[in-house]
Amino acid sequence: xxxxxxxxxxxxxxxxxxxxxxxxxxxxxxxxxxxxxxxxxxxxxxxxxxxxxxxxxxxxxxxxxxxxxxxxxxxxxxxxxxxxxxxxxxxxxxxxxxxxxxxxxxxxxxxxxxxxxxxxxxxxxxxxxxxxxxxxxxxxxxxxxxxxxxxxxxxxxxxxxxxxxxxxxxxxxxxxxxxxxxxxxxxxxxxxxxxxxxxxxxxxxxxxxxxxxxxxxxxxxxxxxxxxxxxxxxxxxxxxxxxxxxxxxxxxxxxxxxxxxxxxxxxxxxxxxxxxxxxxx
Length: 281
What we know:
By secondary structure, this protein is an alpha/beta fold. It contains ten helices and nine strands.
C-alpha cells in the first residue's frame, strides 16, 4: 500500500510535522472507528498505542472517535489530541445509543477504502492492527481479530462466561455462509473493505455488527488473526440485558432473511462461486 506521508507525526510532536499533515491533506486508506460511552479514562492511552502501532505502516489513516454523549470529559481529551494530530477526529452523537449505530456513523464520515473498528476499553490490543492491515493488503475482504482462532484466548474469563460466549457463537452457524464462516463472529475488532458493504444497509441498533456483515455483505474471503482478549483498563462494562435482547433480535432477523429471495448482487456472487467450482453461499 502506498502512502502519501513520510515520517507521520508522533503524539508528542505538534510542530512542523503536524503543520505538514494539515497543509498536505491526503485521502486515508484506513479509517479506524472507536465507539465510546464513558471511556474518558481509556481513550488517551488507547490513542497513543493506536498511533504507535499504525505510524510505521505505509498507509495514511485516520481515527474517528464516535461518542454517545458521555459527558465525562472525553471531548476535551480527544479535542486536545486532535489539535496536535489532524488524523484524529471526534463525533458526538446526541440522543442516540448503540455500538452498531456509532460504527455506521463513523464509517459514513470517511472515504477510506478499508474500514475498521475496535473497542475503547483496551481489551482489544492496538498492536494487532498492523497484522490485520497486512491481511487486507494480501487481499482479504475481511480481517477479524479473533479470540477463537488458533492461538487466541480470553484472559481471566470464568468458565460460565466462556460457555455463554461459545453458545452465542454456536447460534450464529445457521446465518453464516458456507465457505466464509468466522470462528469469532461476535468480535468487535476487525477490518473490512468498503466495497463489500456499500450495497447493504447495516442495522444501526445493537452491538454485533460483524455478524451482520458476515451474513449479508459481499464478502469473498475472511482471515482471522488470533489475539488475547485482555482485561478492561478502566470503567465499567456496557454488557447488560439490552445487549442480549438486541443480539437475539438480530439473530431472528438474519434467520428470516435466510429464506428470502436473493438480491441481484447475491445472485451474481453465487454465479461467480459456481464458475470457480465452489459451493454457493
